[in-house]
UniProtKB/TrEMBL annotation:
<dbReference type="InterPro" id="IPR032675">
    <property type="entry name" value="LRR_dom_sf"/>
</dbReference>
<protein>
    <submittedName>
        <fullName>10054_t:CDS:1</fullName>
    </submittedName>
</protein>
Length: 540
């Protein structure tokens, strides 16, 4: 059987992998069947396809071009009567002449994701590129934004998408992506009152939003249209909104809740609504100093992923930690102040099923004792751990070899330390001005790590630690690794030097190491003649 004869279902599964590698476009011109399958993926979330990081001018140009091309396609789909009305209403707005060619695929019917903020900015870029300046200035300079061409054109595109779509599964009313021309916040648009909204939003599963008064009408509309939203992602919480709390209340089952925080000190409405839905949660992510009490999740026994970032009430966290979390697989605790006893209790209550663990903190009365207690707890309660990221005080690093010996399935280990910017503490030779005893201690620890690390380990990240490893220590470590590992090791270091670079390259040639970011950064600095700067490759 050739690939061309595969069923559409099989092709869809294969093409989803190609999407991640950005090579899906190569399938569009093979034949009609491949085009239909690829279009279903690309147009399912067209905003995700257009988005890309723009760290330099070339990427910025690509982002602008892809956004304008996408908007151009949307504009071309608009009915002639809509374009004529917009031209009359806005006076100066001009549309390209339509070729009256029916597209091979009804692309708008494939759209399952609507990002209003992003679309509004795309339309602004399209206007800047295709219209005269008086129109291209769009709504940003208008006193009445809802009368401006950017809003009116965006509104008509949204209406047409809602009418044509077979069902919107993801609605984004806020985005963290900043456009190349800055980020213009659009006026609120009454999506739920558009023709066809009752069908388009009936199967809505994922809502990304900010919570504030201006969106109350949309929350009320969604409460009537969408009762199967499985995932909520709140990027800002500006008001303890009654309508939003009711939207949570009417959902049949919420599986994922992500909360980034906001300016509201008290959140009684949303807290009470969540208390009723907490038992069905599978994923919980609360970031920021949240006023949502953690004890409302103490019956969330189905959790598979838990992430808490910020500062929380210890008593509330303690109640959550006492929950029977036997299904939990991923745990991330990033605290300002570590709650050692409660964190250990939480680890114990996972019944040894955790596969990914991250525990970091800023403050502790006794970092060494805290590290030692957590290392012992992870040894006891996390035997299935595959990935571990942990703050380890240098004085507590002696416990790492026995930890590695216990975690026989571990694939990735990241050590975080208290990095101090002290350029004078490190010389080009890789030696430091720390006492010889400390260097010898690190050498011994690295030697013991090599002796005890599991064969499955393929990532060892010390780039965010405060370990200054000299060339002889590294050479000794890698020599012991030669026959210990099943695959080449990805190794990151806090400090690089010419001697260490030579050792890296030697063991890359032996297929013991893979290419690392610290080596690439160091080589780049050499090319730029900036070899005096030996600061960590990674900065928060």
């Amino acid at each position: 059987m050739t690939v061309i004869q595969l069923s559409p279902e099989c092709l869809y599964t294969i093409f989803k992998f190609l999407e991640e590698e950005n090579s899906l476009y190569s399938t569009l011109f093979v034949n009609r069947e491949w085009l239909l399958v690829a279009a279903k993926i690309l147009w399912g979330d067209p905003f995700g396809v257009c988005l890309s990081p723009f760290d330099d001018e070339d990427q910025l140009d690509k982002f602008e071009k892809s956004s304008i091309d996408f908007t151009n396609s949307l504009v071309s789909f608009l009915p002639k009567i809509v374009k004529d009305t917009l031209t009359t209403t806005t006076k100066h707005l001009k549309f390209p002449e339509s070729k009256n060619e029916k597209p091979l695929v009804d692309y708008l019917s494939l759209i399952q994701s609507l990002d209003y903020y992003q679309l509004y900015n795309y339309v602004g870029m399209w206007l800047n590129k295709t219209q005269v300046k008086s129109v291209g200035a769009h709504d940003a300079a208008s006193k009445q934004k809802k009368q401006g061409p950017q809003f009116l054109l965006t509104q008509e595109i949204c209406k047409f998408i809602i009418v044509k779509s077979g069902g919107i599964k993801q609605l984004c009313l806020h985005t963290t992506i900043r456009g190349p021309f800055g980020f213009v916040l659009p006026p609120v648009m009454p999506f739920t009152k558009f023709p066809g909204a009752n069908i388009a939003f009936e199967k809505l599963e994922y809502l990304v939003c900010i919570v504030e008064k201006e969106f109350s009408e949309i929350y009320t509309g969604l409460s009537h249209l969408s009762q199967d939203i499985k995932s909520f992602e709140i990027l800002e919480y500006r008001q303890d909104n009654r309508e939003f709390a009711n939207l949570i209340n009417v959902q049949r089952e919420i599986q994922s809740f992500e909360y980034v925080g906001g300016d509201v000190e008290a959140t009684p409405r949303i807290a009470e609504a969540l208390r009723e839905k907490a038992q069905s949660l599978i994923n919980l992510n609360i970031t920021g100093s949240s006023s949502i009490p953690l004890d409302i999740f103490n019956k969330s026994g189905l959790l598979e992923s838990l992430e808490l970032v910020g500062d929380f009430q210890v008593t509330e966290f303690g109640k959550l930690a006492e929950t029977n979390l036997t299904k939990l697989r991923t745990l991330s605790l990033i605290f300002e102040n570590i709650y050692v006893k409660e964190s250990i209790t939480l680890l114990e209550n996972t019944n040894g099923n955790l596969t990914e663990v991250e525990i970091l903190w800023d403050n502790s009365p006794n970092n060494r004792e805290t590290c030692e207690r957590l290392i012992e707890a992870i040894k006891r309660f996390c035997p299935r751990c595959l990935s571990l990221e942990l703050f380890v005080e240098k004085d507590a690093s002696k416990g790492l070899p026995s930890l590695l010996e216990s975690l026989t399935l571990l694939e990735s280990l990241t050590i975080i330390g208290s990095i101090e910017d002290d350029d004078d503490a490190v010389h080009e030779t890789g030696e430091s001005e720390h006492e010889t005893e400390e260097l010898e201690a690190i050498n011994e620890i690295m030697s013991q790590i090599a002796n005890h690390m599991p064969r499955s380990l393929h990532v060892l990240d010390l780039g965010k630690s405060d370990w200054v490893i000299n060339a002889s220590t590294l050479a000794n470590f890698l020599q012991k690794c030669e026959h210990k590992l099943d695959a080449p090791l990805y190794l990151e270091l806090y400090h690089m030097s010419d001697e260490i670079r030579v050792i890296f390259e030697e063991y890359q040639d032996k297929n013991i190491l893979t290419e690392s970011e610290c080596l690439r950064s160091f080589s780049g600095n050499l090319l730029e003649e900036n070899d005096d700067d030996l600061s960590p490759y990674f900065e928060e």
